[in-house]
Design brief:
- The chain is about 75% helix and about 0% strand.
- Helix 7 runs antiparallel to helix 8.
- The longest helix is centred in the middle third of the chain and has 34 residues.
- It starts with 10 loop residues before the first strand and ends in a 5-residue tail after the last helix.
């Protein structure tokens, strides 16, 4: 294990698995998930940008979710992969602070964005005639900016306080990235008051979007139930069910991390849950939306068809040998 001087400001990240028997295998699995997640999200962003049929508020918000997921997974996984192959598993004090700030900003931003995406679906299903006016481009941009600002407030508030506590004991963080609860365990002062305030802040940040989502989907289900068209019911339910699935996965993990009492937590459980929503969720989100969405599938087929046609034209333009 790497050893650092007692007066060093660096921390040591013990990793997802403290002493993996096969670090190469763990690296291969995590790297594969990372590549797939980044690729899927970038493809989703590209499809929404190039296909005019996807230039709607719903897909604009979805593209922002893919941007958040791409940045989100890049905050922790590259460092984790580096540590799996390196004997030096240290992270600087500033590096740890930056990781905490970006992590809090992205997770908070995604909380708010998912809530606003539920409101978008509510307007589309329950007020379809007013949808273009209510969800105007200006409103969509303000929604996205509000999500980023709301998330960054969490980062600006909690990061400086977390990093001002004295860490005069062990520098070994039992985690694969600088998550606030794992870092606070190393403090040599009482952090219980701060942890209580942080708990209240996290609960508030969860309650606001969850309230949006609950009210929106209650109204949506009532509206869909009273629809006379079975085709319309199926289309709206398919679109909304994808969002509900993403929300359930993300908020379920967030609920465990931020709401459940300390008695339910262990370092091993915390690392597994954190890995789920920092590594797996960014890969699952575009899969759920693309596999269950006909518009996205059609856009992908169109782009692949154009690419195949251009390749055939290039081959056809190559002069034969005589």
């Amino acid at each position: 294990m790497a050893v650092i001087r007692q007066n060093s400001t660096d921390f040591i990240l013990l990793g997802l698995i403290t002493h993996p028997a096969f670090p190469g295998l763990v690296f291969a699995v995590v790297f594969s998930i990372f590549v797939v997640a980044v690729t899927l999200n970038l493809v989703m962003i590209m499809l929404i940008r190039v296909d005019s049929h996807l230039h709607t508020p719903m897909y604009f918000l979805l593209s922002q979710l893919s941007i958040m997921d791409t940045v989100y997974i890049c905050i922790t996984v590259p460092k984790m992969l580096h540590d799996l192959l390196s004997k030096e598993k240290t992270i600087s004090f500033l590096g740890c602070a930056l990781q905490i700030f970006l992590y809090l900003t992205l997770i908070g931003g995604e909380f708010f964005l998912l809530g606003l995406m539920a409101y978008d679906r509510y307007v589309a299903v329950c007020n379809p005639l007013r949808y273009p006016k209510i969800m105007s481009p200006r409103v969509c941009v303000l929604m996205v900016l509000g999500s980023w600002v709301g998330g960054s407030l969490d980062g600006f508030l909690l990061t400086p306080i977390t990093m001002t506590f004295p860490y005069c004991g062990s520098r070994e963080i039992n985690h694969f990235f600088c998550e606030v609860p794992a870092v606070l365990k190393l403090s040599c002062t009482d952090t219980s008051l701060y942890e209580t305030l942080m708990y209240a802040c996290c609960v508030l940040m969860l309650l606001i979007p969850i309230s949006f989502i609950s009210v929106s989907y209650t109204r949506i289900l009532i509206t869909v139930h009273h629809m006379s068209s079975a085709v319309g019911q199926c289309k709206d339910f398919a679109t909304c069910s994808s969002h509900i699935m993403v929300v359930s996965i993300f908020y379920g993990a967030a609920f465990y991390t931020n709401v459940l009492p300390h008695s339910y937590h262990t370092p091993e459980k915390d690392k597994v849950v954190s890995a789920f929503y920092t590594i797996l969720t960014p890969m699952l989100n575009p899969l759920i939306y693309s596999l269950r969405n006909r518009d996205v599938a059609a856009a992908l087929r169109k782009v692949l068809g154009r690419f195949a046609s251009s390749q055939r034209l290039q081959v056809g333009d190559v002069p034969g040998k005589f």
